[in-house]
Amino acid sequence: MTPADERHRRAATDEPCLLPGCGEVAVRHLSLAEARKAFTNLPETGRRAPLCREHYREWKKATKEARQLERATW
Predict the structure, then answer these.
(1) CA geometry: angle at 55 spanning 52 and 59, to 5°?
(2) How far is residue 51's CA from residue 67's CA, in Å, rounded to a whole number?
(3) What does the DSSP 8-state code read for residue 21?
(4) What's the CA gap between 32 and 47, in Å, rounded?
(5) Considering its fold, how many domains does the chain have in total?
(6) CB-CB contact of 39 with 14 (8 Å)
(7) What is the pLDDT of residues 32-60, one digit of tens each?
């Protein structure tokens, strides 16, 4: 792994979850539009929504049926 890759990975892992009141470390990044499908109280900052493990799981559960229907049209 190059030093640039290590810096990028380290910076990404230190980022907090975007949801208000959650201080956990983000493990996944979604587009802000995708995250809004499950969480309506997201701030209007940036294009990506970093989510912690617990909130990512909530997003997966909330959008499961819609994602299955979208995949079925492929």
Answers:
(1) 130
(2) 18
(3) T
(4) 6
(5) 1
(6) no
(7) 999 999 999 999 888 999 999 999 999 99
Q: What is the 3-state secondary structure (H, E, C) of 36-60?
A: HCCCCCCCCCCCEEEECHHHHHHHH
Instruction: Reduce the DSSP state of residue 68 to 3 states and report it.
Output: helix
Domain that holds residue 61: 3-72
pTM beyond 0.85: no
For residues 35 and 49, give the distance between their C-alpha atoms in angstroms, rounded to a whole number: 7
Distance, C-alpha 8 to centroid of its chain: 17
Q: Which tens digit of pLDDT belongs to each residue from 3-43?
A: 666 655 555 558 999 999 998 999 999 999 999 999 999 99
